[in-house]
Write a structure and sequence with these properties.
Layout: E1 6-13, E2 22-30, E3 36-39, H1 44-47, H2 49-59, E4 68-74, H3 86-96, H4 103-107, E5 110-112, E6 115-116, E7 122-123, H5 128-137, E8 142-146, E9 160-164, H6 167-173, H7 208-220, E10 224-227, H8 234-241, H9 250-261, E11 275-276, H10 284-288, E12 289-290, E13 295-296, H11 298-301, E14 306-309, H12 317-322, H13 324-329, E15 331-336, E16 339-344, E17 348-353, H14 372-379, H15 384-388, E18 392-395, H16 401-405, H17 412-428, E19 432-433, H18 435-448, H19 452-468, E20 473-474, H20 476-494
Parallel strand pairs: 3-4, 5-8, 8-9, 10-17, 10-18, 11-14, 14-17, 19-20
Antiparallel strand pairs: 1-2, 2-4, 6-7, 12-13, 15-16
This protein binds zinc ion.
Zinc ion is lined by residues 356-358, 360-361, 368, 370.
């Protein structure tokens, strides 16, 4: 290397998606005119990073090197965005300039991520958890991350993680083997994410059929649409559903939390399947994902759990149509400029709507003053392809005052027990469908004109009912209940 040129490299990650690519940060300081560049497909916050880094380095009591500073982010073909490169670039500049001892960074590959403030403090960044996941796969054994991101490191036992809250602390950590102080990760002491609070099904008055439909939906992860007048308990029941979802695997929890990490840094591993309920004013980008850099939307934050859309027809048609891809493929693909990113979006859709614009609808038609045309235009906001992807259609009637006097329905704990038993059964082996039941299904499908998708959905619901009722073989009774929940309900909404 030419005399006077100083070089250092270290490891970071681009927090763009679930499979965050690891990035090598190279620093070259050359004598001459002070010109500073960041190269290697750097966008947005990365391009401006040298301004923050210069201020932070000076604030930490070091001189910013004289001469030309070039930062290269490799590989050059992956896009880098966000502020996570601040800390590795700052450490790299100080190390190349021989201002600090960075032997810990030279000994072993260390993942370094963090945003710098002008005052030298290290701020949390998005996407630390997916970066750690990737580092583990690539056999990186150490990581240096912002203090506020620390909870995200807890699930990774095989990687030593140090967390820092200022550039000075980071400098102290990288001085050598002895100075690298990994935080203790004791899952036993870790409280995990706080348990979300859901209402109990015991609070629901009447509505036995609807409660059973929701329990079946939770068991088989079927999409469900509840239609009924305001005040009948649709929203309450949907929220109750959040509390009775079957448990999930560690792998799925990790994948889901990684998606959350791209939006909100510093989360613990999610202990329960997520329940997301965006307001109907949510933008298509908020629902499906978007922004700059591209970030997951509600459909991905609901990955592995429930996406609850209350007042379904009030959502924008672009948002609703955008649901078709993730409901079909369990993944959502976003593009912005030349950047394309896919995020998993395996959610269970739970939706609720009024039967007509005034809400009093067909169930209490005498009170409804909506014209037939207005009613049809309201219902037509939900397209047939979207309706076709909804497995269970529940008509929720207004609460009968007599029901209020009856004892309350089953509580959430009892439902959760039945759901867990049935979900385990379905996960091991799906119940066999009896020939008579299969024939009945074929007959019904031709008389009702069910699509192939609807037919396979009815078949799956029948298996769920069979498992939920603790029976061994799917018989006609299960199929007819499944058709009532799916096929005919669908027609009732469409016609
Ligand atoms: Zn009406």
């Amino acid at each position: 290397m030419k005399k006077g040129i100083r070089y250092f490299k270290l490891l970071s990650a681009s927090p763009t998606g679930l499979r965050s690519p690891l990035v090598t940060v190279e620093i070259v300081i050359a004598p001459g005119i002070p010109r500073h560049h960041v190269v290697g497909l750097a966008h947005g916050a990365v391009k401006e990073s040298l301004v923050r880094i210069r201020a932070a380095i000076q604030r930490a009591g070091f001189d910013f090197p004289r001469g030309a500073v070039t930062v290269n982010l490799a590989p050059a073909d992956t896009r880098k965005d966000g502020s996570a490169f601040d800390l590795p670039i700052a450490l790299g500049i100080l190390a190349a300039d021989k201002k600090i001892d960075a032997s810990a960074l030279a000994e072993k590959p260390v993942l370094v991520m963090g945003e710098l403030s002008l005052d030298g403090s290290v701020r949390p960044v998005a996407g630390v958890m997916p970066a750690l996941l990737r580092s583990v796969e690539q056999h990186v054994v150490r990581a240096l991350i912002p203090k506020a991101n620390e909870p995200e490191a807890v699930p990774f036992a095989s990687i030593d993680v140090a967390s820092v809250s200022s550039l000075q602390e980071a400098v102290d950590q990288v001085g050598g083997n002895a100075s690298f102080k990994a935080v203790k990760k004791e899952p036993a002491c870790d409280r995990g994410a706080p348990e979300p609070c859901y209402p109990d099904f015991a609070m629901v008055v009447g509505q036995r059929d609807a409660v059973r439909s929701l329990a079946l939906a939770a068991t088989g992860r079927h999409n469900v649409l509840m239609t009924g007048p305001p005040g009948c308990g649709k929203t309450l029941m949907a929220r109750c559903l959040g509390g009775i979802l079957p448990p999930w695997t560690k792998e799925l929890a990790l994948e889901a939390t990684c998606l959350h990490s791209l939006r909100s840094p510093g989360l613990h591993l999610l202990a329960h399947r997520p329940f997301r309920s965006p307001h109907h004013s949510v933008s298509p980008a908020g629902l499906l994902g978007g922004g700059n850099p591209l970030r997951p939307g509600e459909v991905s934050l609901a990955h592995g759990g429930v996406l609850f859309l209350d007042e379904l027809p009030e959502f924008s048609s672009r948002a609703l149509e955008g649901l078709r891809e993730p409901m079909q493929d369990r993944v959502v693909t976003l593009s912005r400029a030349r950047h394309v990113e896919s995020f998993p979006a395996d959610f269970q859709l739970v939706a609720a709507m009024n039967p007509c614009p005034c809400g009093l609808g067909s169930l209490t038609r005498n009170e409804c003053r909506c014209s037939e045309r207005r009613r049809r235009s309201y219902l037509s906001r939900i397209s047939n392809p979207l309706l076709d992807r909804i497995d269970i259609h529940v008509m929720v009637p207004a609460v009968d005052p007599v029901d209020c006097l009856q004892s309350s329905s089953t509580d959430s704990a009892a439902l959760a027990t039945s759901i867990l038993r049935a979900a385990n059964r379905l996960a091991n082996e799906k119940p066999r469908i009896h020939e008579d039941a299969e024939r009945a299904l074929t007959r019904a499908s031709s008389s009702l004109g069910l699509s192939m998708r609807a037919m396979s959905s009815v078949r799956r619901i029948a298996q769920t009912i069979c498992a939920y009722d603790q029976e061994d073989v799917v018989v006609k009774r299960h199929v007819s209940e499944a058709i009532r929940l799916g096929g005919q309900g669908r027609r009732a909404v469409v016609d």
